[in-house]
Amino acid sequence: TLKQKQAAENFLKQSHGKLKKFLDNHGGKFRAISYDVLNFLNWQYCPTYRHTNNHFTFPAMLIPNDNGGLLARQIDGNAKSNLKPSGTSTLYLPKNPKFVLAVEGAINGASILQALGTDLDFAIIAANGTPNEDLLVNKILELFPDKNIPVAIAFDTDVEKNGKHAGQDAAVDVLNSLIKAGYIACTINITKTAGIDLNDVLRSNNG
């Protein structure tokens, strides 16, 4: 709504045009996505977003996904929860893309747009969480049924408490599914450091 947009603009002006307290689910990590990029992604601002499971409210930014749902992320500095939608996010789709970049989260895709601009020659699609790996493959099949476009998979290097590499394991699953379906595909190691995503790379000194 207009009121929400005005509230968002006021919030952003106070933080020098950046969502400096937009945290990821590990907490303590500042995001660096500009208002222009968020606006390009048709984002919305909700000052009192209500968590449907834990019944608490928080200021959040909302990015629409391919299923008509919303990806919610807190921007108040408190890392209580990150809500992942049951759907992918096609963040960028040029008319004749040279390849597809598949990322784990929508903010990782937004980080690419922040770094390289919004006039790219490749598509960007986010799984929005490792449980959505099958949805990601299905979305690529839907958008590129002729399979003549290569796919690069750049998932996170996170390590869970049990030692599992969820992002990298999911990337391999997506890779194998795409190759089995007849695509040319590869994975990209964005860093040798564990626990890093593309937004972390964006915010590094040479990001």
Structure description:
By secondary structure, the protein is α/β, with parallel strands linked by helices. The protein contains 6 helices and 8 strands; from the N terminus they run ααβββββαβαβαβα. The protein has helices at residues 2-14, 35-40, 106-116, 133-143, 166-181, 198-203; strands at 44-50, 57-64, 70-74, 89-92, 100-103, 123-126, 151-154, 185-187. The strands form 2 sheets. Strands 4-6-5-7-8 form a 5-stranded mixed beta sheet, sandwiched between helices. A 3-stranded antiparallel beta sheet has the order 1-2-3. The model is unreliable at 16-30 (pLDDT under 50).
- Largest sheet properties: 5 strands, mixed
pLDDT averaged over residues = 80
Which structural class is indicated by helix and strand composition?
alpha/beta
Form type: globular
**Order of strands across the main sheet:** 4-6-5-7-8
Order of helix and strand elements from N to C terminus:
HHEEEEEHEHEHEH
% residues in beta strands: 15-25%
Count of separate DSSP helical elements:
6
Quaternary state of the chains: single chain
Fraction of residues in helices? 25-40%
- Rg measurement, Å: 17 Å
- Unreliable segments (pLDDT under 50, ≥5 consecutive)? 16-30
Distance between the termini: 34 Å
Total strands: the figure is: 8
